[in-house]
Write a structure and sequence with these properties.
Elements lengths: L1 E6 L5 E5 L4 H10 L6 E5 L5 H13 L2 E4 L3 E4 L7 E2 L1 H4 L9 H8 L1 E5 L12 H9 L3 E5 L2 E5 L7 E3 L5 H12 L4 E5 L5 H12 L3 E3 L5 E5 L10 E2 L4 H14 L2 E5 L7 H9 L3 E4 L4 E4 L10 E2 L11 H8 L5 E5 L10 H6 L3 E5 L2 E5 L8 E3 L3 H13 L3 E5 L11 H7 L3 E6 L1
Parallel strand pairs: 2-15, 3-14, 6-7, 10-11, 18-19, 22-23
Antiparallel strand pairs: 1-23, 1-24, 3-5, 4-5, 7-9, 8-9, 11-13, 12-13, 15-17, 16-17, 19-21, 20-21
Family: Belongs to the EPSP synthase family. MurA subfamily.
Pfam family, one: EPSP_synthase
Function: Cell wall formation. Adds enolpyruvyl to UDP-N-acetylglucosamine.
Length: 418
């Protein structure tokens, strides 16, 4: 197993291209199950989670090929099952549930795994499928679904759920009649999925708002080659990297409008940010980082997936910041590791009180989840001395070539065997 070694204290300067969004690519791959044939996706990141979904689709009978993007042929899919061995490492595997139920009338999907950042039950997915006429049983750690053609209905989510919105939107695309999703997730990844489903022949209105209407159709076909949207969390992470190292970066192939909430917080912290159509230039403040409060909210609010990275930045602020985690109840596992680097952080329920320190110092740290890993890398880039980040397989789930991109802008970062 590899670890990342970082010699910190170097201001990052240069250009970083942003990769495609993992959280957009995964539901697009699941959507290919809705229509037999060849589906083509470009700007797909080469990540562990993408490979896991590729293996999961292959288990069902799909064929895949990488050639200027990812091609999936679902004509031979005949096994509507998602086994524990593949699902246990990635929660997004549950996205196959809706498409399998809609196309095959049955599914056997293991209860999902993924990052241990708090309870993320799929009861909203299951309740929605039941409202559409599916019969659901839980047996031996698996969800068993049986149904005829699903029926359109009105589904009101008790809380905003991105994967729940995506799963039921895919299921509704082949249902009989109209399905209305109320309190739906508004994330750009939901919109990207809706756009490809529309290319496939689905009839969807309201994606990107809290109410999505889907008129079911009898069948779907593969859409035209679809480019995955840029990764807004990777974008935000590199914006913070410029600020925390006292550097200046230009990010290309990105969507500035997708990170508006993050940019507003960085501006409040004193960073200089200039946006173009698909570029962002960011410079660290000349007079130091200002401490800023933040609270996570569903999109378009400040993303929970940027909370750990923003906290790393605030460890070097000029005062005290309070960071509230309002999405997941167990997403402060990076705090103890940041404290090993010299951060002054106190937890108070679902809030972290961060008192800025003059500098961080390198130390061995351990990653606990995907975004926590990123925060430790950011802190290591700013710290004096050497930082060893172990268990970086978490990083490989969500950041494409992170160490290579950072080296290209001046970071001293490399891999070693643990």
């Amino acid at each position: 197993m590899d670890k990342l070694v970082i010699e910190g204290g170097i201001p990052l300067r240069g250009t970083i291209p942003i990769s495609g969004a993992k959280n957009a690519a995964l539901p697009l791959m699941a959507a290919s199950l809705l229509a037999p044939g060849v589906h083509r996706f470009t700007n797909v990141p080469r990540l562990r989670d993408i490979r896991t979904m590729e293996r999961l689709l292959a288990h069902m009978g799909a064929k895949s090929e990488w050639n200027h993007g990812l091609t999936l042929d679902t004509a031979s899919v005949g096994t509507p099952e998602a086994p524990y061995e593949l699902v246990k490492t990635m929660r997004a595997s549950v996205l196959v549930l809706g498409p399998l139920a809609a196309r095959y009338g049955r599914a056997k999907v293991s209860l999902p795994g993924g990052c241990a950042i708090g309870a993320r039950p799929i009861n909203l997915h299951l309740r929605g499928l039941e409202d559409m006429g599916a019969r659901i049983e839980l047996e031996g750690g698996y969800v068993l679904v049986r149904c005829g053609r699903l029926r359109g209905t009105t589904i009101t989510f008790d809380q905003v759920t991105v994967t729940g919105t995506e799963n039921l939107m895919m299921a509704a695309a082949l249902a009989e009649g109209e399905t209305v999703l109320e309190n739906a997730a508004r994330e750009p990844e939901v919109v990207d999925l809706a756009e490809y489903l529309t290319e496939m022949g689905a009839r969807i209105e309201g994606a990107g708002t809290a109410v999505i209407r889907i008129q079911g159709v009898d069948h779907l076909k593969p859409g035209r080659a679809h480019a995955v949207i840029p990764d807004r969390i990777e974008t935000g992470t590199y914006l913070v990297a410029a600020g925390i190292t006292g550097g200046s970066l230009q990010l290309t192939h990105c969507r500035p409008d997708h990170v508006d909430a993050v940019i507003r917080k960085l501006l409040a912290a004193g960073l200089v940010v200039q946006t173009g159509a698909d570029t962002i230039r960011v410079e660290a403040p000349a007079d130091g980082i200002r401490s800023v409060d933040a609270a996570t909210w569903p999109y378009p609010g400040f993303p929970t997936d940027m909370q750990a990275q923003f906290m790393a930045l605030m460890t070097l602020g000029d005062g005290v910041s309070v960071i509230k985690e309002q999405i997941f109840e167990n997403r402060f596992m990076h705090v103890s590791e940041l404290k090993r680097l010299g951060a002054d952080i106190r937890l108070d329920g679902r809030s972290a009180v961060v008192r800025g320190v003059p500098h961080l110092s390198g130390a061995p740290v351990m990653a606990t989840d995907l975004r926590a890993s990123a925060s430790l890398v950011l802190a290591g880039l700013a710290a004096r001395g050497r930082t060893d980040v172990s268990r970086i397989y978490h990083l490989e789930r969500g950041y494409e070539a992170l160490d290579e991109k950072l080296r290209a802008v001046g970071a001293r970062i490399w891999r070693e065997r643990e």
